[in-house]
Sequence to fold (445 residues):
Amino acid sequence: MKRIRTGSFTSLLRMLGERQVGIYLHNQLRKRGITRSTASSLAYASGYESAQHRSSLVKLVNSHLPIALLLAMAVVKISTGFVQAQEPSADVLAPAEWKRVDDSVERALQWLASTQQRNGSFPTRQQGQPGVTSFCVMAFVSQGHVPGEGPYGAQLLKAVKYIASCQKQNGLISAVAPWGATISRNVSKEISNTAPYNHGISGLLLSEVFSMGQVNQIKGLDAKIEKALEATLVMQRWPKRYPLDKGEWRYLNQQAEYNSDLSVSGWQLMFLRSAKNAGFEVPQAPIDEAVSFVRNCYREKFGTFLLHATDKDFRSRGMAGAGILALAHAGFHDAPEALQAGDWILKNDFRRYNVVKPFGQPEWPDDRYHYSAFNCAQAMYQLGGKYWQQFFPPLVKVLLENQQADGSWPAESHFFDGKFGRAYTTSLVVMTLGAPNQLLPIFQR
Fold:
């Protein structure tokens, strides 16, 4: 059984807060075969202050829980009704299946750890840094590991320092990006396309790390996040060709027809929300404008969210998930667009491993397999109910069946994303399988 070290749990508790630890505790109990009523009672009993009672409780469940969860029972207060009402639950998989997931994830983390480079990065092409390294750190955090603590602590801290070191004077966090005090838009197509992704993903990772209370281990982390926020807001204010694109992000140069897309914008929006949740000053207006754009990307005739706010067919499973997730962060869990996109995802599932669906773009499909599976897993967990119950089990089955002998997953089949390698896809799969853990604050339900 996978165990979380006691040192790591202090940071996890700060990061999650009382409500989420209660959900995590309940789900971990259910995953290990404890009945729903018993799991609810144990989570409720964690609120008792009596040391004698807690000692008895620990003895009762010691064979089922990692040490971190035993600590959780001593400090978390949560009512029985609250826990029972939580959706989605861990019941979607049997205990034996959860054991297979845990074993698979541990093999994947061991493989990722073995690939780390001397400078702290995880392997990919330079244009994918530090976005891919940020994904890898998130993968570890999604399974209960934090920088600076526990078995992978030193490696994760080194990775975070590498990510922070990639920031340019203009605030962009990207290994390959324009230098200078302002963000130049006169760059090559590849730099233009990858730098905004690296920035949004890495900014999100740094603000999530800040939320864990790790600020003292990385010099000037708060200043770097503030500078990154400024860069994100500058890019959001760039002129847009179409009125419906207002409030969003895309690439650095202006060569593309559309000046905004849901994929880049989803990461920038999550970065803003994460930083705001971490205590940074983030104006509400840019977030509201971004959410408005997300809703503009929904098209009734397709029943899902598109890459662009247009009537042309720019469908992909990744954008369906990104749209649902963005609305959930804004508090619109049951928005009609989100529910219809959830139904669309169920019809366009992931049972055929690493197969890209072209939809309306046979020459340049927007769909990616691993990236889409990750987005959709987070989204369907947010929707809960039938969406999570019907989506997650078949996805787990196909992912576990296609894990390679060394613990990794194959590179993406899409001709553009394939060049970013196996650390990219493996980190996305680990986060996909870890969606129910709710250990990354930005993805908490």
Remarks:
- The first strand starts at residue 298 and ends at 299.
